[in-house]
Amino acid sequence: MVFIPSDLIQETDLGLRQNTHQTGTDLVGLIGPSPTVTLVSNRHRNYEAVVEPILSPADLKVVLAFVPIVEIANGTVGVLVTPSLPVKTVQELIALAKSKPGQLSYASSGFGGLIHLNYEMLKQMTGAEMTHVPYKGTSFFQADLYENRVQVSIDNVLAHLPHIASGKVRVLAVTSKARSPLLPEVPTMAEAGVPGFESATNYTLFVPKGTPADVVAKLNAAGNEAIKDADFRERMLKLGIVPVASSTQAEAQAKMASEMKRWGDVIQKGNIKPS
User: Fold this and answer.
1) Which CATH number does the domain housing residue 253 bear?
2) Are residues 133 and 205 in the same domain?
3) What would the mean pLDDT of 25-49 be, rounded to a whole number?
């Protein structure tokens, strides 16, 4: 197993905070450039770097306080439907939704989150209009999706994997560029006829802006060593997370910029406002 060198990591108790609205991300950002402080973000970069600044501009200063230095892995997102829905492909789902505008219900984990934005992007790309039903989280809508009280969701598949296997929910496609090793028989959205539809939960290592270049280089090298380690990759896959093959800092930054544009366009085109 490969770990990031301990001399580059500062253990900071981010759980004890006076302000309940202040996250660990906020606190690391406030520390500023440091050779011993890093942040691994397992929140979806779309939400943290795009949705929060647009829906809550006060968060923009936090986002701008960090730079990505190495992408570690991605979670698999899938198009999920209740098994009684008479569709077996994404194209059949789109056709059904367009034939009955607003009659299918789409479950999300809340307004402005990844699952909601996945629906907005699908609607904008295909014209498939459904009724958005925001819940307080994935666990709150799982039973309703499995029992046909809502019919569709585009969610990280991890929590649904046992139910996909048992037939309680059907996955029509994954939204990554390549097929997922978690569901190798399931086509990508491009293969399913919706090229350009890409979405994934993401794990990326960030540092405060202004962190010394030599520290950034060491962390990037350590991150790449980790994701090439067979034991690390096996452990990640068991957790439902797919490690990337490699990641330069330039690639991590370019992907962040691309994602910011993608989701910013979805938000603006959808006229999504703070609730």
Assistant:
1) 3.40.190.150
2) no
3) 47
Distance between CA atoms of residues 120 and 112, nearest Å:
10
Buried b (16+ CB within 10 A) or exposed e, 21-51: eebebbbbbeeeeebebbbebebbbbbbbbb
Asked whether residue 184 is assigned to any structural domain, the reply reads: no
Sheet holding 201-208, edge to edge: 39-41, 201-208, 66-75, 241-243
pTM > 0.85: yes or no: no
Burial of 213 per CB tally in 10 Å (0-12, 13-18, 19+): exposed
CA distances from 195 to 126, 187, 191, 259 (A): 11, 12, 7, 16
Residues 81 and 170 in one domain: yes
Q: What is the pLDDT of residues 43-90, one digit of tens each?
A: 444 455 555 655 566 666 666 788 899 999 999 999 999 999 999 999
What are 159-174's pLDDT values in tens digits?
999 999 999 999 999 9
Residue 36, pLDDT > 80, answer: no
Instruction: Give which of 122, 47, 46 is closest to 78, Cα–Cα.
Output: 122
Task: Say which CATH number the domain at 129 has.
Answer: 3.40.190.10
**Is residue 56 domain-resident?**
yes
- Write down the mean pLDDT value for the chain: 83
| One domain for residues 28 and 115 | no
Q: How confident is the model at residue 8 (pLDDT cuts 50, 70, 90)?
A: very low
Calpha distance 190→90 (Å, rounded): 10
Helices and strands, counts by H and E, the chain: 11, 9
Task: Give the domain extent around 148.
Answer: 77-174
